[in-house]
């Protein structure tokens, strides 16, 4: 039997409501965890990734004995305590040097994980590029350049995790000056065994490298309405090797992908399925269009008033014409009294 927690006061109730599943999710908070031994390279990479993720980033300064693929109980505890849905666990061992584990959570439980390794000589930090940096908290543009991101199961999972990690708040509109930086994620040359339509499970050494580059965007005058765009690399520059992966449980994935039913008020506001002949204007008012068939106005029922009776205008014109031609005084045109 599941344990249900009841709020003790209004403050705790608001905190519990804020953690409930939502149709439009909040920005994902990522926790950066250092293992028993990380090394200088992994520590620098995590520091640069945290700079791109701010302000939705939490850093654990102390070393922790954590092995996500063997036991994920620690990640579940930290996820529930900090209301976080992503983890970056850095760990460097002799068998797997310079490794990082990207873990994604749902409802306080680990959903899926993906381990990558930083290639030797394939890392340049933010400090190596003496160029302007993007403003913390701005939503980046993501660019994935490879057909394997849509065909190979491992790279499909990696793309989904990286999108959740770098993606910020869900927005509807954005102005051009708000597009400050681009994160490009490409793959190296793919072997012939991975180019087929039905990918198979291959050794990790045969998988292509994952190249991550970050650029700042400059909008220059072009003489037209569309500005001229220039990209300047700002760092970090990463070359990663895909290692171990853990797919999500089928039942937990089904719960994570489930969408709540929309209320009637949300549908009327245009948040749900769009209805025919209904639209919401810029002021937020719901406007509808009604199509009426052809009507016969001659048979239209109106109020039974004396002025609307047939022939009333003709009788009035006759009385007016009689009054204009006669010499009688106005008092003589009064109606005779009814005989008693």
Automatic annotation (TrEMBL):
One of its GO terms (biological process) is maturation of LSU-rRNA from tricistronic rRNA transcript (SSU-rRNA, 5.8S rRNA, LSU-rRNA). One of its GO terms (cellular component) is nucleolus. Keywords: Nucleus. Coiled coil: none annotated. Its main location: nucleus. Residues 28-251 form the Brix domain. Pfam families: Brix. It is found in: Nucleus, Nucleolus. Residues 1-13 have a biased composition (Basic residues). One of its GO terms (molecular function) is rRNA binding. Residues 1-21, 307-340 are annotated as: Disordered. Belongs to the RPF2 family. This is Ribosome production factor 2 homolog.
């Amino acid at each position: 039997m599941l344990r249900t927690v009841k709020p003790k006061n209004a403050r705790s109730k608001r905190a519990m409501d804020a953690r409930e599943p939502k149709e439009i999710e909040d920005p994902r908070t990522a926790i950066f965890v250092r293992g028993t031994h990380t090394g200088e390279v992994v520590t620098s990479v995590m520091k640069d990734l945290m700079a791109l993720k701010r302000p939705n980033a939490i850093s654990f300064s102390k070393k922790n004995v954590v092995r996500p693929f063997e036991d994920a109980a620690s990640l579940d505890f930290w996820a529930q305590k900090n209301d976080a849905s992503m983890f970056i666990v850095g760990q460097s061992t002799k068998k797997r040097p310079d490794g990082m584990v990207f873990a994604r959570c749902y409802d306080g439980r680990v959903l899926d994980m993906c381990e990558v390794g930083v290639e030797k000589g394939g890392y340049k930090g933010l400090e190596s590029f003496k160029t302007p940096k993007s403003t913390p908290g701005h939503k980046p543009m993501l660019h994935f350049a490879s057909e394997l991101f849509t065909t190979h199961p491992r790279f499909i999972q990696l793309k989904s995790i990286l999108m959740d990690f770098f993606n910020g708040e869900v927005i509807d509109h954005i102005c051009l000056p708000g597009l400050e930086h681009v994160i490009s994620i490409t793959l190296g040359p793919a072997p012939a065994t991975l180019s087929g339509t039905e990918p198979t499970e291959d050794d990790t050494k045969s998988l292509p490298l994952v190249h991550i580059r970050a650029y700042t965007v400059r909008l220059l005058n072009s003489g037209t309405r569309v500005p001229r765009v220039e990209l300047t690399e700002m760092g970090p520059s990463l070359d990663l090797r895909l290692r171990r992966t853990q797919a999500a449980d089928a039942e937990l994935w089904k719960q994570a992908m489930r969408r709540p039913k929309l209320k009637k008020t949300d549908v009327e506001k245009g948040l749900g399925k769009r209805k025919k002949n209904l639209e919401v204007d810029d002021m937020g008012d719901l406007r509808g269009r009604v199509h009426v068939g052809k009507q016969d106005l001659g048979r239209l029922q109106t109020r039974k008033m004396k002025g609307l009776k047939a022939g009333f205008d003709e009788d009035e014109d006759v009385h007016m014409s009689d009054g204009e031609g006669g010499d009688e005084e106005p008092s003589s045109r009064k109606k005779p009294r009814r005989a008693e």
